[in-house]
Design a protein that fits this description.
single chain, globular
Length: 328
């Protein structure tokens, strides 16, 4: 259900809160950070004291640009310092989790355990590891969490700076892969609305610009593409190169642009002893079922899984086995 229709749930959570802490998933992207910033602006209008929790030690290029340019403009804290910001009355603290509903994906497990009043705002499918004991606003029809927050900004007629509007638009552009995936009339309308607030398409492209070396490294993954049943694209990295999670995701996005491909899977090392899997779909192929069998998660359009103390080859074998079983 749309967040505007569920605004009473939001209002109930916010009304009694004196201190509100916002966080998204680990490895922030522009949808995660943008939705936190958009909600921060809404709460500031309501004269609420709020903070954004960022524990990531490194950031993708667009997130790094935003955090650098907004330094001193918004209150960003680390969860290890959260104690000094908490209200002494536990019931007066509220934790808002945006752009994820999974316990294992949040920026801070400390915050999750420390703050009992919780509200989840997300556009991904709920699952087995969805956060417990939290009010949940989940709109799987929305292209992105930035789209959900933008609809609130419009509904409440919140005045925001053109730069904040640009960040929100960047989140929508990112999650829709430049308006090619999971879009509807509402997505385009709210993007237009952000533009009417001063969002800059040129600035969006600046935030989404890629590092040349990282781009070149990702292109290597496109040299060994396989197809399964003519509609699933699959590729894997060598065991000697380590990628970031978002690198695998971007390659998975790219694979969907090939003829007849409805889903994609990309495997690569994301840590010394950690293998990552990123998956994408146009919505007609059940990647969620496959990822859940592998211990991962996601929704109809995107998802991921990670594996510790194993090899890329073993993950590949298990993935292909499950894909074959699903196709039978």
């Amino acid at each position: 259900m749309s967040i505007v229709k569920e605004r009473k749930k939001l209002n109930r959570a916010v009304k009694s809160a004196k201190k509100i802490f916002l966080m998204a998933h680990k490895y922030l992207d522009l949808d995660a950070l943008g939705s936190c910033i958009g909600m921060y602006m809404i709460l500031k209008r309501r004269k609420k004291k709020c903070y954004i929790i960022v524990d990531d030690k490194s950031h993708e290029l667009g997130v790094e640009k935003v955090l650098r340019e907004l330094e001193g403009c918004i209150e960003i804290i680390k969860s290890e310092d959260m104690e000094e910001y908490l209200h002494p009355n536990e019931k007066k603290n509220l934790l808002m989790i945006l752009d994820t509903n999974k316990t294992e994906l949040v920026q801070s497990e400390i915050a999750l355990k420390k703050i009992s009043q919780k509200l989840v705002i997300d556009h991904h499918e709920l699952g087995k590891t969805t956060i417990k004991n939290a009010a949940i606003i989940d709109d799987i029809k929305a292209s992105s969490t930035c789209e959900m927050i933008t609809s609130l900004i419009e509904y409440y007629d919140v005045e925001i700076d053109s730069y904040y509007a640009t960040i929100l638009l960047s989140g929508i552009v990112l999650d829709t892969n430049n308006f090619t995936l999971n879009t509807n009339a509402e997505t385009f309308y709210l993007s237009y609305y952000l533009t009417s607030l001063g969002a800059s398409a040129k600035k969006v492209q600046y935030l989404l610009k890629q590092d040349l070396e990282e781009y070149t490294e990702r292109q290597k993954l496109l040299s060994s593409i396989e197809t399964i049943d003519g509609k699933v694209a699959f590729t894997k990295a060598t065991p000697y190169t380590q990628y970031r999670r978002e690198d695998l995701a971007k390659v998975a996005d790219t694979l969907l642009f090939f003829n007849n491909i409805e889903a994609s899977f990309v495997i690569g090392k994301i840590g010394k002893d950690v293998v990552g899997l990123s998956a994408r779909s146009l919505g007609n192929y059940d990647i969620m079922s496959i990822l859940e069998k592998l211990g991962g998660g996601g929704d109809a359009y995107n998802g991921a899984a990670k594996f510790e103390n194993t090899t890329i080859s073993k993950v590949e074998q298990e993935l292909k086995k499950i894909i074959k079983e699903e196709g039978e």
